[in-house]
Amino acid sequence: MEYRKLGKWGVKISEIGLGSWLTYGGSVEAQDATAQMHHAFECGINFFDTANVYAAGESEKVVGKAIKSLKRESVVLATKVFFPMGEGPNDKGLSRKHVFEQCHESLRRLGTDYIDLYQCHRFDPDVPLEELVVTMDILCRQGKILYWGVSEWPADQIQAVVDCAQQLNCPPPVSNQPCYNMLQRDIEKDVVPVSFKNGLGQIVFSPLAQGVLTGKYKPGSEVPADSRAASDRDGVFLRGRATMSKESLEKVQQLSLIAKEINLTMGQLALAWCLRLKEVSAVIIGARKISQIDENLQAGGVKLSGEIVARVDKILKQVMAKR
Predict the structure, then answer these.
(1) Across 243-250, average pLDDT
(2) Which of 320, 308, 314 minimizes the C-alpha distance to 243?
(3) I need a labelling partner for 209 at 20 to 30 A (CA). Which of 12, 88, 184, 251 fits?
């Protein structure tokens, strides 16, 4: 396993992290989740990502129980806040009240004294940046969080919150967690340059486009019965998306030939492609089986040649031009 700094900051995280969206607290039994996390840790993964909203808090509980028997100082634990956790007017967003209260709830569910990385799950236009920045400063001073970051924030708001933190002499965000993969590259234009300029690392989620980039979905064929796309619950995040279009699936099959040439699976190529950027601190994988973790781990440390990257981009160019 190789480790990268979180942007310009001192903490180092495994370039492959393990997430829990749609898995832990949901489709994966708690004992299996614990076994997977322990296996991942033994293999060198030190970054574990969750969110308060995942499975309505159950994901944090599962992750918390799993890390209890791990060496806490060797774990970089990340969670998030923003989405509704109740029906009241203050049960959502990034107000000081909601963030403060949900931080304590996350600490309780996770069974830990501190959160390594506390992330703002989305931008909140209803909350002044000064309110958010000072809230994060207070939580840092109290020792309840060590770092804070954002997720899926646009470039202009990333710049604005960094400027605000500087003006208030408060800790700025250290990371952004965006969706990024071969088929979804929007962040390359503005978000990545702005983040890099300000020292934020990218922690990429959905690097396999929710399984599309493993090559399991074939154009013109029925989706595999045991796949996410076939699930009544989880398939909603895939059905009708551009990543599942016939054209995209055809491109994935072409990319699979390149992967085979360099002795990688399609999924490993997709992860290594994301990690080609120095601005990317880590990719977050999700898994329902230990074998999936083991396969994805083989992408760690892979360096793609300029020729391979150029060939990949040539295949993807038509898809990206139409997005």
Answers:
(1) 87
(2) 320
(3) 12
Which pLDDT value is given to residue 321? 42
CATH of domain 3-211+265-302: 3.20.20.100
Torsion of CA 231, 232, 235, 236, to 10 degrees: -170
Q: In the predicted model, is pLDDT for residue 322 greater than 90?
A: no
Beta pairing, strands 201-204 & 280-285: parallel
Q: Which residues of 301-315 are buried (b: 16+ CB within 10 A; e: fewer)?
A: ebebeeebeebbeeb
Residues 149/153/156/157 CA torsion (nearest 10 deg):
-60
- Active site residues per annotation: 54
E strands within the chain? 3-5, 12-14, 16-19, 47-49, 76-81, 115-120, 145-151, 175-177, 201-204, 280-285
Strand, helix or coil at 116?
Answer: strand
Whether 152 has a pLDDT exceeding 50, the answer reads: yes
155, 221, 165, 225: which is closest to 194 by C-alpha?
155
pLDDT at 172 over 50: yes
Q: How far is CA 141 from the centre of its chain?
A: 26
Query: Are 64 and 110 a contacting pair, CB within 8 Å?
Result: yes
Q: Are 25 and 211 in contact (CB under 8 A)?
A: no
Q: What are phi and psi of 180, to 5 degrees?
A: -155, 130
Smallest Cα–Cα separation from 30: which of 42, 20, 17?
Answer: 20
Beta-carbon count within 10 A of 40 CB: 26
> Residue 135 in contact with residue 96, Cβ under 8 Å?
yes
CA dist 166 and 162 (Å) reads: 6
The domain spans of the chain are: 3-211+265-302
**What is the arithmetic mean of pLDDT over 167-173?**
98
The two tokens of residue 34 are 């614990």
- Enter the pTM of the model: 0.91
The arithmetic mean of pLDDT across residues 11-27, rounded, is: 94
Kindly indicate the confidence band of residue 236, based on its pLDDT and cuts at 50, 70 and 90: low
